Structure formats: C-alpha cells, structure tokens
C-alpha cells in the first residue's frame, strides 16, 4: 500500500509541470501578466504621457508604455503585442490632438475600453493652429509650453484620483510637487533664453514641433517640415529655408532625436553652417542620461524636466557658442 501511494504521488508531481504548461498555453499573455501582478494596469502612448502617469501613480499602478525614446508618434503603428496590452488594460491614457495618428481614433471608438486624453482639458483658445493648409487643426506639441503642460498634468491628476480613490491624497500631493518642479524649470529656462542676444533667438529645426516653446520663451521658430512628419518637405520648402538661412546669417540648425536628420544635414552642408546637438521633440530621452537644470539639479532625460533642461542648454550652446 505504501508503494502504491508513493507511486501515485510521483505521477502527480511529474504531471504537474505538464498541466501547468497546458494551463498557461491556454491563457492569454495579458492574463499571465495579471497572475503575476494584480496592480491596476495603465497603458500609455507617448513618452510624455508615460512620464506624467508614472510620476503621479508611483508604485500603485503597472504602467505599460507603447512608445519609447526616439519613437515618432506621428508615424507610430501599433504591434499585435501593443493591441493585446491595450485590450487587457484597466485604463488607456493617450495624448490626443491627432499626435498619435489613427491610433487615437481607434481608442476612442473601442468598446468596453476606458480611455483618457491628457489634452482634453486644454481650452481651444490656448491651442496654436496649423498654418499648413486651408483646414485648421491644432498643433499637438503642447508639452513645450510649461503652462499648458501643467494644466494637462493637473487635469490628469484629477482624472486618476477619481479612478483610484484610495490613492487620491497621494496623487494630489505628487501633482503639487510636479507643478512646482515644472515652474522652477520654466523660470530657469526663461532666464537662460533672456540672456541670448535678440538677433540670435532664431530656432530652425527639422519639423514644426517647437512653436509652443517659441511662444513661451520668445524665440522665432522655423522648420523644414510641417507639424506632422508624415509628409516630407518638398523642393520649394528646402529652397525657401536655404534662402532664409543665407539672408539672416543663421549659424546653427537643429535636428531632432525622433526625426530623420538627412534633409537638414544636406541643407547644413549646402549653406556651410553647423548642426547643434539633436533636440528632443516628439519623444523624451533615455533614463540612462540626464542634464543639469535649476539649482544645479540633475534631471533624467526620460522626464519632462530632463528633456527641457537638455533642450535649453543645447539650443543656447548652438545659437550662442
């Protein structure tokens, strides 16, 4: 009898891994993740949105970012894995204003999917409009305006506090800290730009992502491409930019980390001027790198403050070496 029991136990033990494999094989990847982590799951689209969500929720949620450093949201196409993450998330937070292209429309139309756009709280009067065609549509690069991005952050904090009532107090405390940091960075950046000679406050970039930055900090912004990178610049655009550079004795051009630099590099070669450090435009940078901002504090490039500190220093170094 003892031998029979012992053999039965051995059979069960040996069959257990097989049954587990069969169970997991019939389980969706998202469900497997759920088994490992029961935290409230939030899928985010752009790196800017991911930064806000992670800072506001801390360790209370599992945040899954679809886009990473160097990814152009205008050209982004979700993978099958991305769609699986979206369909199994408790909440999807996206930027909006057509920055993510067709993905945003897909999210809005999806049934049984809770979504939120961080730009939904911006009054229409605060948005810059496209100048590229007869049809007006808003410029989505609002994170370059500290005041508008603070507004987006506070709106997101209120939304998250309703979705996560147990964490409401903590979320609002973090929002207060973030707002103070953003204001400090903005004040520091404004002082840096104010020290630039007026005739050097001309920023020429690959595509038209920096108009909000120009409006807020008093820079004239010119770009080779339009607001979206989907359509490439034409021969007329290049000719006009070369003429402008020559007439105004521009000394530096700026490529972007998420945009192909080839066209602007060719113009720099043709006009004989230098190219500055690549700027962060539609995507933030990597957590491994950081820049010094106000009060000599170091900010990681995967945060809004780190992106701003790096861009401000890079622009000033290029325009007034």
State the share of residues found in helices, binned by percent: 40-55%
CATH superfamily of the largest domain: Nitrogenase molybdenum iron protein domain
**Could you tell me how far the N terminus lies from the C terminus, measured between alpha carbons in angstroms?**
89 Å
Rg calc: 24 Å
Number of E-state strands: 10
Architecture per CATH nomenclature, i.e. the level-2 architecture of the largest domain = 3-Layer(aba) Sandwich
The CATH topology of the largest domain? Rossmann fold
What structural class do you assign from the helix and strand content? Answer: alpha/beta
Strand order of the largest sheet: 2-1-3-4
Shape: globular
CATH class of the largest domain: Alpha Beta
Q: Unreliable stretches, pLDDT < 50, 5 or more residues?
A: 1-36
Major beta sheet summary: 4 strands, parallel
With helices defined by DSSP (H or I, 4 residues minimum), what is the helix count? Answer: 11
How many domains? The number is 2
Strand content: 5-15%
The helix-strand sequence is HHEHEHEHEHHEHEHEHEEEH
3D architecture notes:
39% of the residues are buried. The protein has a four-stranded parallel β-sheet with strand order 2-1-3-4, with helices on both faces. It has a two-stranded parallel sheet with strand order 5-6. Helix 3 (47-57) crosses helix 6 and helix 6 runs antiparallel to helix 7. The model is unreliable at 1-36 (pLDDT under 50). The protein has 321 residues and is an alpha/beta fold. The chain has two domains: 31-121 and 137-183, 3-Layer(aba) Sandwich (Rossmann fold), CATH 3.40.50; 189-319, 3-Layer(aba) Sandwich (Rossmann fold). The protein is built from eleven helices and ten strands.
